[in-house]
Design brief:
This protein has a single domain, classed as TIM Barrel (Alpha-Beta Barrel). It has 20 helices and 8 strands. α4 runs antiparallel to α20. The longest helix is centred in the middle third of the chain and has 24 residues.
């Protein structure tokens, strides 16, 4: 998603109301407000007085902002971000990695070596668990935390699922071996531990049951609402056949894998984040997430977190329905809010089936949805259990969420709230939020270059708009490099 920066001339005239206000049943918008002088009749909050959120995110003091970043890293980051902003270069790299040239001995090694020392090193944590652990330690010295991601893509059979599960379990072990709180979450992709064909079948069945509540799914466990009235159901155009005995066995194996991973996270007291995917399989992923949360999230701090992609038109409705159901069942639910990473493929699929895109019509609609969902979750966790991860590269959303957190009394360094950005992206926002006292994590995939390549290619294709919009980061990095050069010369 494109990053919108609030012009400094506007920010100078805008302050944020950071006092704690009574919460209504309907959530307020995540919007800046002009702060009136404090009323003498209203006493200040009993907690420590917090500075206005507009002052929290300081992007002017470059020395402080990039104080933990070596000059060599700044140079590489600037070069890589400039390269990813050039569409023809991204297109050529994508074509090259998928071409037959990658099967030519010698050329393949040259290509992989060049990628390893540029794009891979910039966006990934390392090729194995020990290297990833070292990257986490280095990141932690800068005041940031890590979300460890075993960088595998979709699994097609049970053998691949079992292999991937071992990788996710090792990730939990690595996280436990690191300094306390240096890893905020372990990430799992349900598409890596359950065959894709089964997820598609389950999603079809779940969609049909939403159309026809009398449609029986004997394998279905307790779950929060997966769909809203506005959710797209066009993927399933006819009544699907029940799961075959073989598919039911595969589902039981997938349940066992996820249960083993969840239990390991419970024992390690390590939150587990379930990544979101495209809408053709997301219903099944939500089913796994919610049914597991009902089992494991019966304490104040949730272990299992789901992901909501707010570029979808039904995101806000689904979030509120799931949160309400969790409250009624006494379940502590956590969500990661993202804008989304499948814009082009979702729109093409909908168009091919003769339906309108499930994606918001404008980028501003997506921004509004993300900010509204953030506001809703911040108000919710201020009143009770649960947690939220605001995964955004948008500077304005970061500012507004920081202001909202103060307004509802969450404050800074609160275990219920985490900001997050991709490793190698939006460094200024990450350090700005961290310097303001908030928990900030970087999403850090790891694994062999060949294994992580599908992840990198997907990021390059689906997030090219975000990569191209990294001008804010590049501009600040260039200024800091100039400042350091001037300081070294004079």
């Amino acid at each position: 998603m494109a990053t919108r920066v609030i012009p400094p001339r506007i920010l100078r005239n805008v302050s944020y109301n950071t006092s704690t206000k009574p919460l209504n049943s309907t959530h307020t918008s995540l919007l800046p407000t002009l702060s009136p002088p404090p009323s003498p009749e209203v006493p200040p909050p009993t907690s420590a007085v917090l500075p206005p959120a507009a002052d929290d995110l300081n992007f002017q003091d470059l020395r402080k902002l990039f104080s933990h970043v070596p000059t060599s890293t700044l140079l590489r980051s600037t070069a890589v971000l400039h390269a990813t902003a050039v569409d023809p270069l991204v297109d050529f790299g994508t074509w090259l990695m998928r071409s037959n040239l990658m099967h030519v001995n010698g050329l393949r090694d040259i290509f992989l070596a060049s990628i390893r020392h540029t794009f891979y090193h910039h966006f990934c944590a390392g090729e194995d668990a020990p290297t990833a652990a070292s990257s986490i330690r280095a990141l932690n010295h800068t005041g940031l935390r890590g979300m460890l991601v075993y960088g595998v893509e979709d699994a097609l059979d049970n053998e691949a699922c079992d292999r991937n599960l071992r990788g996710f379990l090792r990730t939990v072990d690595v996280s436990r071996s690191l300094p306390p709180s240096s890893v905020s979450f372990v990430i799992v992709k349900i598409t890596a531990i359950c065959p894709m064909s089964l997820l598609e079948r389950m999603s079809d069945l779940l969609r049909w049951q939403h159309k026809d509540p009398s449609f029986s799914l004997p394998w279905k466990q307790d779950c929060f609402p997966i769909f809203s009235e506005s959710s797209p159901l066009y993927h399933t155009r006819s009544r699907p056949e029940p799961l075959t005995p073989e598919e039911e066995r595969d589902l039981e194996l997938a349940n066992q894998r996820f249960l083993e991973l969840c239990q390991k996270c419970v024992n390690a007291n390590m939150p587990l984040m379930v990544d979101a995917e495209h809408t053709s399989v997301q219903p099944a992923i939500d089913y796994f997430t919610y049914s597991s949360a009902i089992v494991h999230n019966r304490v104040e701090n949730p272990i299992v977190f789901g992901t909501m992609q707010t570029y979808l038109k039904d995101a806000k409705e689904r979030l509120m329905l799931a949160a309400e159901a969790a409250d009624k069942m006494g379940i502590s639910m956590g969500f990661k809010l993202v804008r989304g990473a499948y814009m082009s493929s979702e729109s093409k699929l909908a168009e091919s089936l003769g339906y309108s895109s499930p994606i918001h019509n404008t980028i501003q609609d997506t921004h509004n949805c993300f900010n509204d969902c953030s506001s809703f979750m911040l108000e919710k966790i201020a009143k009770g259990p649960g947690g939220v991860v605001l995964a955004t590269h948008n500077v304005e959303s970061g500012r507004l969420a920081a202001a909202k957190a103060h307004e509802v009394g969450i404050g800074r360094v609160n275990h219920k709230l985490e900001f997050a950005q991709l490793h190698g992206m939006s460094e200024a926002l990450s350090f700005g939020l961290s310097n303001a006292g908030f928990h900030v994590s970087k999403y850090m995939p790891f694994g062999p270059v060949e294994t992580v390549m599908p992840y990198l290619l997907r990021r390059a294709e689906e997030n090219r708009g975000m990569l191209a919009a990294s001008g804010f980061d590049r501009q600040l990095m260039r200024k800091e490099l100039g400042r350091r050069l001037k300081a070294a010369v004079f």
